[in-house]
Design goal:
The structure is a single chain. The protein has one domain. The protein is 47% helix and 18% strand. The chain contains nine helices and nine strands. The strands form two sheets. A seven-stranded mixed β-sheet has the order 1-9-8-2-5-3-4. The chain has a two-stranded antiparallel sheet with strand order 6-7. The N and C termini lie close together (8 Å).
Amino acid sequence: MPSWQGKSSGTTLGYKIFITLLKGGGVGAAYILLYFVSFYYFLFSKSSRYTRYYFRQRLGFGYWKSFRYRYKNYFAFGQSLIDKVVVQSGIKSPFSFHFDGEENLFAIAAGKKGGLLLSAHIGNWEAAGHLLERLNTRINIVMFDGEHRKIKDYLQTVTGDRNANIIVIKDDLSHIYAINEALSNNELVCMHADRFVERVKTITVDFLGKPARFPAGPFVLAAQFKVPVSYVFAMKEKKFHYHFYATPIQQYDFTDRKAAMHQMTKEFAAAMEKMVHLYPEQWYNYYDFWAV
């Protein structure tokens, strides 16, 4: 059964080259090298067939428009990795941010009942994630630990320790207890809700006109703890500018738990669709998302 493998491609040497450029020549110099690296992945990456299907069949782009946007997609993904390192490290940051709906997150934090912030592999959530510190509450970020250990160790020396608490998704399911504890303590939990790995439960809803499977886990948590939910995205609009979106607080009636979870998944998929149509090159999906 097709599913995401929980890791991205790349080598330690590649990261070292880009970070050396960042320190010596700034973000602009790293972007120049990225033009060539992106072109390589555009030509030779096995995932090209998935981006081609996405642009041609799901968004309905013509051949040449799809061709351009497939390259723009790899370039935007590379930019997101560079920007993440810049924001999380001591490297001078040129980035500015515009906030849409930030008051919704302050309202969740002020409620002192915990909450779920659900995002997707769209834009660059990690570039704006550090700004959540302003909410004055404990933040827990749930993520896969799929990067190669050498890469993770090297990036740790560059970015240092994260201020947010990281909950790593593990095969032994120990992360479930950590998430439960965080929500029981009325803390915020941030997680992606658009990818699943094998052996996890999923919920199928329409996405871009065709049924697709979403991980059930985030929506199970919302039903179990009955916490407020907001869908959040950080999208790049200009070379050094991000637009942060947070939807109004979602509260669901979980009397019929299954129906409520399905409705919640539909609304999350709709929020994703809105971002995809506004920023089509910034959805970084490199596997068969519509395999059901």
